[in-house]
Amino acid sequence: MALEILPYTADRIEAVRAFNMRLESHGFSADHEQFPETPHPGWLPGLQLFLAADGESVHGGYILRRQQFSLNGQEVTAAHYRLPLSEGVIDRAYSMLGLRMVRDALARESRLYAMGMGGWDKPLPQMLKRLGWQISSVPFYFKVVHPHPFLRNIRALRTSFPRRLALDAAAFTGAGWAGMKALGISRRLPVQKVDLAPDFAGWADRIWQQARAQYPLLAVRDARTLDELYPASNPRFLRVRTPHGWALLLDTKMRDHKQFGDMRVGTLVDCLAPPASAASVVRAAAGLLEQRGVDLIVSNQSHGAWSKALFEAGFRTGPSNFLVALSPALAKAAEFHFNRGDGDGPIHL
After folding, report:
1. Structure confidence by residue, pLDDT tens digits, 171-202
2. Which domains does the chain have, with CATH numbers?
3. What is the Cβ-side half-sphere exposure of residue 241, based on CA atoms within 13 angstroms?
4. Is the dihedral angle over the CA atoms 189, 195, 200, 203 positive or is it negative?
5. What ranges in the chain are assigned the alpha helix state H?
């Protein structure tokens, strides 16, 4: 029977489960290597799931998340192309399925974007580049607040026994703190009063209207959209409100994290303000996280104004495998505003 791509319905759950088991038997068992075993995963609003099926069997799938964007001042519909999985990774008979799924998604929505993707060497960004998509990395910024736990836990640096010894020595002698201070990496911001909002209703629309025309491309961030993404019912979300902007923060105690070990990590997930006001928002957000006692603050930001604001607040750049890819129909803007609030949102932070 011919392979076709169809909406995911409840009668296909067992076939999806069998597909996942075949992937798992070949070592593909991580969250990003398994397709949801429900047609309604509920991670984010607006998700549509599609399956590549041959009769009763499922051999791949992908997710579209439709949302509104402001593109050169005009509101348009676009979609996030996420979690494309194909049996082609274990069976060459399906080696072209990945390409077919991208083309199927483009037929459903020409304005697509993909985010994350694990780095330039992965199959998805390589394929999208060949198809003419615009791809760039979203810079990763970090600020060390407490050098001792940072040096003892940062696994990207603790990759060998000699390195672990050197980092431990720097942590316990204070040499690491002195070095970071000299480089401006551990510089604290002045303490200031911060306004934490319980939700976005009643005030965020004003900021959206002030800021939207100053970014050639960004996802709609009005109050209704933000309260769907970051509901008031979730106590983890910290909404910093300033006179001209806002930031959405997380303060997370990690447990044996693959990158951050047991550090307490603050994340500047999402933000919006006119570019001229980015610095004041970053200072308020980072200052609050410092006052709360986090060990490290991280953020991914693509726009130049936010990058400059982070650097001025004591952040530095590290390696980034967080990519953004825009289909030709969406890649019509000179500069865009993307961060961790786009794509999957903060579900993995």
Report:
1. 777 776 666 666 666 677 877 888 999 999 99
2. 4-109 (3.40.630.30), 140-318 (3.40.630.30)
3. 15
4. negative
5. 13-25, 97-108, 123-130, 147-153, 161-173, 175-183, 204-211, 223-229, 278-292, 304-312
